[in-house]
Amino acid sequence: MGDGPEFTLRGDGSITTYCNDKFCSTVTFTVINLNDCITNVYGDLQPKADGYAGNFWQSCKDCRVEGSHIICQCGKGDGGFKESSINIDDIVHNWNGYLSCSGQISSCYPMRWNCKPANWWPDGWRPAIVDTPCDIWQAAMMPPANLTLPPGLKLSTDLMSKGRA
Fold first, then answer.
1. 89-140 pLDDT per residue, tens
2. The CATH number of domain 8-138 is 2.30.60.10
3. What residue spans define the domains of the chain?
4. What Pfam families does the database record attribute to this sequence (predicted)?
């Protein structure tokens, strides 16, 4: 997706990107709140364990993106902070065109496969859907200028065509 980061880190701890949807041969805008994926353990960013709260965003600050890593200053629990990083590629995955982590996807963005009926879902395993707020609507309306699609894929414009903002 160009020479820049593969995703955008938002001010609420969520990331946005475009993922390939193998069912409709499109690229869809998708988001997941990393508070459902990452935790801070005494200053170290780690994947969230099942059944535990992530919420790294509450105890980390000055987060930035470098390649596929998120780097933050994270609280150590003693009042101090230390730099910590985590590779997003190790914990966030493309599940049929939508970002997924820890066996779950976010309700932040409507899941719809444009070439399928409205209530269609892929067969097989289904991730849990978590209801974590994300501030993504403005970003969803503006695809990045440097977005390069692989041959044969097109950008899904379902959200844009509905005029949501």
1. 999 988 888 888 888 887 766 677 778 877 787 877 777 777 766 655 444 4
2. yes
3. 8-138
4. CVNH (PF08881)
